[in-house]
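Task: complex structure prediction.
Instruction: return structure tokens for all chains below.
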Amino acid sequence: MSLRQKRVVVIGGTSGIGLAVALAAQADGASVIVGSSSEAKVAQSAARIPGAHAHTIDVTSEDSVATFFDRVGAFDHLVFTAGDWGQFGAGSAVDDIDVDKARDLFNVRFWGALACVKHARKQMRAGGSVVLTNGTVAHRPRRGSPVSTAMAGAIEHLVHSLAVELAPIRVNGVCPGAVRTDIWNSIPADQREARFAKMTERQLVKRIGEPAEVAEAYLYLMRGGYTTGQILIVDGGQTAV
Ligand SMILES: NC(=O)c1ccc[n+]([C@@H]2O[C@H](COP(=O)([O-])OP(=O)(O)OC[C@H]3O[C@@H](n4cnc5c(N)ncnc54)[C@H](OP(=O)(O)O)[C@@H]3O)[C@@H](O)[C@H]2O)c1
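Output:
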């Protein structure tokens, strides 16, 4: 089964993993619509994904989400890869957590995903699916990561619950390990490769993943008509050892 004649919406599709999903879905025959909050990134999509439609959407605003899906109209598959570190950054030890800033970490990735599913659902055709995104911190907590671990775990539970609630629409999730995208741009460019090597040295596949490698998982979950309520881990074996 291919994505020919399917309409695929990728929220977060202007960068990183979402951009790779948009390109792979288009190569598989889909008509692609990407959305994200920055007008500059949305404008760049015309060159990065020729033929795709791109609109702005701020997933932290329910009005913005509703407007976006009204504009998109009927479609088949929703992929959600939007993510940021919010005001909270990469994390803090419990004693240092600013609880108001910590709440912010859920805004894009958890509440944003839920808002998109809520407003997308009315536009989704029979046979469609939803694919959300979390991360291996859900399964491999590090010191200083209680909030990001809880947020990533909450997305997995959201996937399982939505799969029950939205059936026969299928709902799945992808759980990436370390992947080379702009999300790591806070690391100075001249230190990035060394950090990637350090981060991945204990993995079975001892290197950082490329966005196109992770995009394969989203394509499988969109095409795999007998798969729902699942989380597909793509992490170079990080969580296998
Ligand atoms: N890369 C990794 O190593 C890794 C590992 C584990 C999990 N993940 C997860 O995978 C997902 C994708 O990450 P990535 O690495 O592809 O990051 P990325 O390259 O930074 O892409 C993030 C995307 O989210 C969009 N976005 C951010 N805030 C938004 C908002 N309020 N409304 C709509 N769109 C918004 C961004 O566009 P705008 O700036 O235009 O809004 C961008 O298109 C994230 O949830 C991330 O946590 C990534």
